[in-house]
């Protein structure tokens, strides 16, 4: 018998972690009272950011959730498809049998008939012989793998023509304090020890963590506070955990022949939103968007993750013109009447980019237009509805152009694909 290499021991430690503490902690019975919503893999986001609101809803969607864990993204997507009566299948792959069993129990509670579960490693997808997928979700997985580049290239091979992915990776600055604590705990309780021993040591450290520790100062995440044993372990004891700046993330995508169709939310990566100085804004706006995104990350300092929808290079599908009066706008999640209520007297919408709240200006008339957006009315129907209020077609066009562009960048108002 040969000794395991350091890489192998970390991998076996990672496997042991997710069997002992499936992440995130979920109770299948909770599915009877709530649906967890997030990004990526929200169906309306996939329709818009991956397929440009041009892929017919009647066309079956074949989706892979690569490393599904306890199932948050998979359950959300399968539920959205089933509720909308849309054809498709969500295939969930994870190497942890314990995590899969929890995801499967959640699906059973919801009586989802469009989802199936396969135990296996996403690094060995070829051996599973699953074919090609229109959409692939890989959320919070790549940064734990021994070779993220090879894993992403493997996923790209299983992407059908015209398809796309929803990805999430960790970002360094918003996780300030995490890696310091990880380094300390690796010295106190090396990854070669049992998960139970390591967790006990982490709990003991957290009880008396100095007030000066950066982990105490950082409010950009809360797994160690409210995520139970699984959350604490995943944040502070994960044996393999790397983070990507947005520049590194874009390079990572590029090596796999991919590019983002959307960094989520797009406005988060616009530093001019929190830098009001006109000369600064003018200078920043002249830079390539990649540099603008890097500046936003550098200065905001609170991005703990990067979430993106990605497609093959050169394959991004441009959504329909929102000024086309036959286009149908749709609220991503928050009803228009509720979003309108959030507008302040000065016609700004307070928007939280994590722990940073930025006032986003909107045309005053959007307060009356937002409640009319129901996913059925066309842009032309909206114009007709507000005409009796004294808003001419020309005025509506100006208001709608500014309002839609702003709210699209906040991922609040999108366009609906054709039936």
Describe this structure in words.
This protein is an alpha/beta fold and 419 residues long. It has helices at residues 6-20, 43-50, 72-83, 97-110, 125-128, 148-157, 178-188, 195-207, 214-217, 223-226, 228-236, 246-255, 278-285, 289-300, 336-342, 366-369, 379-386, 393-409; strands at residues 61-66, 88-94, 115-119, 133-139, 159-170, 258-264, 305-312, 329-331, 348-353, 356-361, 413-415. The protein has a seven-stranded mixed β-sheet with strand order 3-2-1-4-5-7-6, with helices on both faces. It has a two-stranded antiparallel sheet with strand order 8-11. Strands 9-10 form a two-stranded antiparallel sheet. Helix 8 (195-207) packs across helix 11 (228-236). The longest helix has 17 residues, at 393-409. The mean pLDDT is 96.
Succession of helices and strands: HHEHEHEHEHEHHHHHHEHHEEHEEHHHE
Q: Cα distance, first to last residue?
A: 60 Å
Based on DSSP secondary structure assignment, what is the total number of beta strands? 11
How helix-rich are the residues, as a percent range?
A: 40-55%
Mean pLDDT: 96
GO molecular function: methyltransferase activity
Keywords: Methyltransferase, Transferase
GO biological process, one term: methylation
Pfam family, one: Methyltransf_12
């Amino acid at each position: 018998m040969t000794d395991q290499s350091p890489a192998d021991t970390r991998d076996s430690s990672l496997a042991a972690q997710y069997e002992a503490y499936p992440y995130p902690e979920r109770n299948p019975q909770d599915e009877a009272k709530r649906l967890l919503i997030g990004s990526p893999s929200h169906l309306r986001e996939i329709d818009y950011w991956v397929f440009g609101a041009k892929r017919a809803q009647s066309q079956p969607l074949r989706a892979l959730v690569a490393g599904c864990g306890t199932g948050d993204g998979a359950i959300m997507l399968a539920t959205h498809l089933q509720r909308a009566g849309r054809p498709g299948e969500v295939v969930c792959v994870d190497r942890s049998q314990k995590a899969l069993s929890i995801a499967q129990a959640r699906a059973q509670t919801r009586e989802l008939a469009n989802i199936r579960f396969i135990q296996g490693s996403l690094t060995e997808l070829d051996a599973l012989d699953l074919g090609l997928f229109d959409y692939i979700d890989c959320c919070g997985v790549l940064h734990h793998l021994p070779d993220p580049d090879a894993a992403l290239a493997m996923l790209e091979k299983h992407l059908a023509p015209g398809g796309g992915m929803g990805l999430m990776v960790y970002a360094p600055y918003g996780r300030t304090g995490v890696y310091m604590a990880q380094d300390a705990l690796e010295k106190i309780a090396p990854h070669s020890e049992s998960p139970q021993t390591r967790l006990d040591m982490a709990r003991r450290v957290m009880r008396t963590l100095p007030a000066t520790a950066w982990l105490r100062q950082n409010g950009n995440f809360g797994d160690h506070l409210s995520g139970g044993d699984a959350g604490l372990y995943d944040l502070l004891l994960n044996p393999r955990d790397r983070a990507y700046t947005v520049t590194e993330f874009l390079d990572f995508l590029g090596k796999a022949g991919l590019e983002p169709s959307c960094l989520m939310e797009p406005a988060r990566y616009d530093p001019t939103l929190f830098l009001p100085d006109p000369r600064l804004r003018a200078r920043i706006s002249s830079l390539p968007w990649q540099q603008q995104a890097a500046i936003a990350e550098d200065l905001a300092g609170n991005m703990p993750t990067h979430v993106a929808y990605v497609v093959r290079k050169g394959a991004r599908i441009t959504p329909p013109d929102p000024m086309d009066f036959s286009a149908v706008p749709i609220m991503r999640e928050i009803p228009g009447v509720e979003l309108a209520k959030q507008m302040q007297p000065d016609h700004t919408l307070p928007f939280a980019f994590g722990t940073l709240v930025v006032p986003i200006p909107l045309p005053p008339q959007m307060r009356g237009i937002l409640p009319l957006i129901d996913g059925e009315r066309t842009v032309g129907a909206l114009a007709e509805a507000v005409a009796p209020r004294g808003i001419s077609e020309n005025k509506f066009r100006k208001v709608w152009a500014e309002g839609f562009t702003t709210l699209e960048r906040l991922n609040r108002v999108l366009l609906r694909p054709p039936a």
